[in-house]
């Protein structure tokens, strides 16, 4: 066993791909530094996993090491997107698929909540108008009259 | 360059030139050995991969020695401007002078044991002069150009190595051609070093002047008073 | 034909939400190999982007580049054609044939004068125009004609970018690259044999998003994809530094996934995105599958010696030169020795004998 494998085998979720894990450790370090930055300065980080030269098994190993946390969300827009909190709070896996179920982006976000989960300001304004309309319609229904009369 | 020298010693190689000579000797030796090993790596070491960093060290020595060679080269050019008359010999070749060619032929014949007596020179003899300029000045410059353009491949686009030397690879055609030239240059310099050491020892013994000690003390002494 | 409304409008009309748009921008940034911090800028640019008209010309090529493009998964070639660009001429993919096809090309050129992107795959023969023609028009003529009013030219594949296979020694057709002919247009070289599908679409996406050509390296290749060598991005690079090499394709080193340098990997001199973008929807890439890099995105890679010779092995056969030099050295040495011998003979002949009496006399 190499030095690195000894280290990682301490973690509960090591998948034991001996000698093939060269890009997992640096990436874990990067995540750890980014989390430190987030805690200290509030600066968030996004790591594009498609820009990382993974060796065979590296990606599976990384996902395994990051584990699963409490939050899991699925978005259905232009295909599926899953947002998973890892067992490290503030570290998220965001996995984008297109309508043919092919992965189009895969990122680690180090942030309190991924941007994609937030309601968009323009959408909220639009919702405000929409909600107003709904309230109006419901009011009319309650009064028993049709909105066209008033 | 032949002069009427009757006796006494002449101060030829100033201290910076001597330091440069020996630093160059060391860096060229290291460069040739490590360069060869970069091109033809040693058999894989046994044991865990994480215990070793062999190619990394070999490359580090190559690059460190290359920087010493490069800085030395620049320093030597500077010294040619501010040093004595002999310090400029490496940067000019009196090809327009007939005497140079005549004495060159004489020196070739002397090296081949076809002349009975060599001429005396304060600086380099014409043959040594020609080889120094072609191999060390021009050759060294070519090795620096090709070497740094290959080095720019790893320092990446936009690095100073790339902006200064990166143009060479597209000019030559592709990177493998540049590797070939760099490799050939190494063998040319290795052959030169062998000749250089042989001739330096030989001339120290059979010529009429000091050779090896001159590159240590800087003083040229002569064994006789004849012209 | 290119739509006049912007991509943002078009997407919203198709019921794409702002979250969806954000996702689309994230995928686009990832596709263009731009950092995720660029997403807001991309969103802003994409909102205003217009679908460009694309004319694709295929010259002396093997259709491998088109095969590669059709395997692009993000965006897929369908979404690329329907959502991102307006592919107005591509004689392998288009439905129209013969005169109708050529009419489509001319119409696209006319309507989008100065604004369309010209994509070229394949090299152009200069030896005889008859070597390669489309609808009776020689490649050279068609390239010049179509390039005249193009906004930019994308040379897809090593053939179009550098001459590629047709130009390999002895180059029977006199093949040249696009940049050998067109000098007055911005040319983006997307080299590779074939190029990575997402790199082709990524370059088109960049033009679509920003309306400009990306930063290029010294061979006019986009730096985001060709900025680093295979060797520097290779997951096997640590083995190189540690001096661990596979010596044959079936030894322990090969099984353990060690460096393939000695087996002829051209990774150190090859610039491409294979190590990160990978192939077949991110499944694998040559080095990961155990074979060295051929250097297919570099100029003249076909003539760069054997694919299974280490980088340091000379391209040409030097044994003849070395033998000749050795013979010449030997001849010179023999001549010098001969001359010496003559000198020695003369010296011996001229040598007078001295007796003890003589010496006593003179003293």
TrEMBL record, chain C:
Positions with a binding annotation for [3Fe-4S] cluster: 274, 293, 296
Residues that bind [4Fe-4S] cluster 1: 62, 65, 159, 193
Residues annotated for [4Fe-4S] cluster 2 binding in this entry: 231, 234, 259, 265
Assigned EC number: 1.12.99.6
Listed PROSITE patterns: TAT
Keywords annotated in UniProt: 3Fe-4S, 4Fe-4S, Iron, Iron-sulfur, Membrane, Metal-binding, Oxidoreductase, Signal, Transmembrane, Transmembrane helix
Pfam family, one: NiFe_hyd_SSU_C
Start and end residues of each Cytochrome-c3 hydrogenase C-terminal domain: 226-305
Cofactor(s) essential for the protein: [3Fe-4S] cluster; [4Fe-4S] cluster
Catalysed reaction equations from the record: H2 + A = AH2
A single BP term in Gene Ontology: anaerobic respiration
Compartment(s) of residence: Cell envelope
Subunit (UniProt): Heterodimer of a large and a small subunit.
Family: Belongs to the [NiFe]/[NiFeSe] hydrogenase small subunit family.
Full protein name: hydrogenase (acceptor)
Annotated organism of origin: Sedimenticola selenatireducens
């Amino acid at each position: 066993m190499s030095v690195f494998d000894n280290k990682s085998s301490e973690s509960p979720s090591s998948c034991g791909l001996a000698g093939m894990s060269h890009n997992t450790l640096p990436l874990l370090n990067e995540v750890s530094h980014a989390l430190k930055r987030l805690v200290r300065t509030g600066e968030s980080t996004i790591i594009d996993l498609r820009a990382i030269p993974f060796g065979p098994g590296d990606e599976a190993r990384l996902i395994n090491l990051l584990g699963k946390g409490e939050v899991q969300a699925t978005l259905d827009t232009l295909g599926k997107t899953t947002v998973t909190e890892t067992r490290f709070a503030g570290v998220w896996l965001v996995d984008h698929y297109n309508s043919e179920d092919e992965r189009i982006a895969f990122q680690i976000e180090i942030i309190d909540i991924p941007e994609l989960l937030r309601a968009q300001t323009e959408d909220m304004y639009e919702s405000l108008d929409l909600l107003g309309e709904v309230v109006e319609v419901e009011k009319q229904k309650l009064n028993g009259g049709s909105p066209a009369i008033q | 360059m032949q002069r009427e020298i009757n006796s006494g010693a002449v101060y030829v190689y100033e201290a910076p030139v001597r330091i440069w000579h020996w630093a160059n000797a060391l860096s060229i030796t290291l460069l040739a050995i490590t360069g060869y090993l970069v091109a033809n790596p040693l058999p894989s070491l046994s044991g865990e991969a994480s215990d070793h960093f062999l190619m990394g060290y070999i490359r580090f020595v190559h690059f460190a020695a290359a920087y010493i060679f490069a800085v030395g080269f620049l320093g030597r050019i500077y010294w040619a401007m501010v040093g004595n008359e002999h310090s400029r010999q490496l940067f000019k070749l009196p090809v327009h002078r007939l005497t140079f060619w005549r004495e060159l032929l004489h020196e070739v014949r002397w090296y081949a044991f076809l002349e009975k007596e060599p001429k005396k020179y304060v600086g380099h003899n014409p043959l040594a002069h020609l080889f120094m300029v072609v191999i060390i000045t021009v050759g060294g410059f070519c090795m620096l150009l090709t070497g740094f353009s290959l080095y720019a491949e790893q320092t990446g686009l936009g690095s100073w190595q790339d902006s200064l030397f990166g143009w060479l690879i597209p000019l030559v055609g592709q990177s493998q051609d540049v590797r070939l030239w760099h490799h050939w240059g190494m063998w040319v310099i290795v052959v030169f070093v062998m000749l250089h050491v042989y001739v330096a020892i030989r001339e120290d013994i059979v010529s009429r002047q000091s050779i090896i000690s001159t590159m240590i003390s800087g003083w040229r002494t002569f064994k006789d008073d004849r012209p | 034909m290119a739509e006049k409304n912007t991509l943002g409008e078009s997407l919203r009309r198709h019921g794409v939400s702002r979250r969806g748009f954000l996702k689309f921008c994230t995928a686009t940034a990832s596709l263009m190999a731009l950092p995720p911090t660029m997403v807001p800028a991309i969103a802003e640019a994409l909102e205003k982007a217009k679908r460009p008209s694309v004319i694709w010309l295929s010259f002396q090529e093997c259709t491998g580049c088109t095969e590669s493009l059709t395997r692009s998964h993000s965006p897929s070639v369908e979404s690329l054609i329907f959502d991102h660009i307006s592919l107005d001429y591509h004689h392998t993919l288009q439905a129209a044939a013969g005169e109708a096809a050529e009419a489509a090309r001319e119409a696209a050129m006319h309507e989008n004068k100065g604004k369309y992107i010209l994509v070229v795959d394949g090299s152009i023969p200069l030896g005889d125009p008859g070597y390669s023609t489309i609808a009776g028009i020689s490649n050279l003529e068609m390239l010049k004609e179509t390039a005249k009013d193009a906004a930019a030219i994308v040379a897809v594949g090593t053939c179009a970018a550098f001459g590629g296979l047709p130009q390999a020694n002895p180059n029977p057709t006199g093949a040249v690259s696009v940049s050998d002919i067109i000098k007055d247009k911005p040319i983006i070289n997307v080299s590779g044999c074939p190029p990575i599908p997402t790199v082709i679409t990524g370059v088109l996406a960049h033009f679509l998003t920003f309306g400009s050509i990306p930063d290029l390296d010294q061979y006019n290749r986009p730096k985001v994809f060709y900025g680093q060598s295979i060797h520097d991005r290779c997951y096997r690079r640590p083995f190189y530094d540690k001096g661990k090499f596979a010596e044959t394709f079936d030894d322990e080193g090969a099984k353990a996934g060690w460096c393939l340098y000695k087996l002829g990997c051209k990774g150190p001199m090859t610039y491409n995105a294979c190590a990160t973008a990978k192939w077949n929807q991110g499944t694998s890439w040559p080095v990961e599958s155990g074979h060295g890099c051929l250097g297919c995105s570099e100029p003249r890679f076909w003539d760069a010696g054997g694919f299974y010779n280490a980088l340091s092995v000379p391209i040409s056969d030097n044994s003849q030169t070395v033998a000749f030099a050795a013979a010449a050295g030997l001849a010179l040495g023999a001549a010098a020795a001969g001359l010496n011998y003559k000198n020695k003979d003369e010296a011996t002949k001229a040598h007078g004998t001295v007796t003890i009496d003589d010496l006593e006399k003179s003293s």
